[in-house]
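Sync notes, pocket subgroup
Present: LS, DG
LS reminded everyone that the earlier model was apo-only. Rerun requested with WQD included. Inputs:
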Amino acid sequence: MRVLVTGGLGFIGSHTVVELIQNGYDVIIIDNLYNSELDVKDKIKDITGIEPKVYIKDLLDKKEIENIFKENKIDEVIHFAGYKAVGESCKEPLKYYNNNLVGTINLLDIMKKYNVKKIIFSSSATVYGNPGVPKYSESLGRGKTTNPYGNTKSMIEQILEDLYKSDNIWSIGLLRYFNPIGAHESGLIGEKPVGIPNNLMPYILKVASGELEYLRVFGNDYNTHDGTGVRDYIHVVDLGKGHVKALEKLEKSGPGLYIYNFGSEKGYSVLDLVKTFEKVNNININYKIVERRPGDLDEYYADSSKAEKELGWKAEKTLEDMCRDSWNFMKKQK
Ligand code: WQD
């Protein structure tokens, strides 16, 4: 089967492409290099022995998307491409709505035109809003999201649901990720955030490498076991494997709307992650407790039992694996 992966040179995209190739898929990538680097395609080849076909194009250029569908017989799509920084989305909402929504609609229009009606969308636990319970199951349904980034995830899920209702030949997977961290064991691919990181692990890595002086811990007065925020961290390789399982589900079960949480079903606090990172890598991470970051919730983690039951997928890697693999990748960066 030939799968088009949008954003396939990015952090989650590249790890998914590796798993797809290793499971016999013929992969084509479209990526605009906004948050990725072209040499990731060489790293994918180093890992798998196969270099995927790459188009350095933007989903906002509808003609270019159509050219890809004209030149290649595409069977299905995994859609990662989109801006994802919560803070930036609050400062530049129009940039986020235009890029994430228009880009997606362009892609879906061309898929419809070429009768390609299988798509997996990279969604997020953020679509649950603040449901008031720590353990998130798919049955909670979407809640009120609190920033433009989260709004676009929720809106795209709605667009895909409406598309399915209008034409139930579509096979649509909505995969809600919790907090992806880690890196491929080879250390060849991983997360390379541009500038000052928003997310916790990339920030820890910059402190560990000496690029940043200390980690700011956003609040220690949350209603959690140690007062710092608790999240469900999932190894990006487990996530990549989950996408293969989800694609197999769409191929096997045919048309439908399939929604799954992808998490480890465990909650770890900021200080749990810091201490585990220090232990596993024998590195001290300086940190200071500072005020809460607006919009952060106390604690949430996945109920991924539906993915386990219906996809035969379960996260296997530990927090120690995530900390070790992240640092192993970071050490290899120039
Ligand atoms: C995790 C915990 C912070 C940074 C967001 C998006 C989600 C997904 C992942 C994008 C929180 C604390 C963080 C720091 C800190 N999408 N923290 N100091 O906010 O759970 O989820 O990113 O990829 O859709 O909502 O992730 O890593 O920013 O924060 O103390 O410098 O670490 O308060 O408790 P978050 P995060």
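DG: The CA atoms of residues 265 and 302 lie 5 Å apart.
LS: The two ends are 36 Å apart (CA to CA).
Action: DG to write up.
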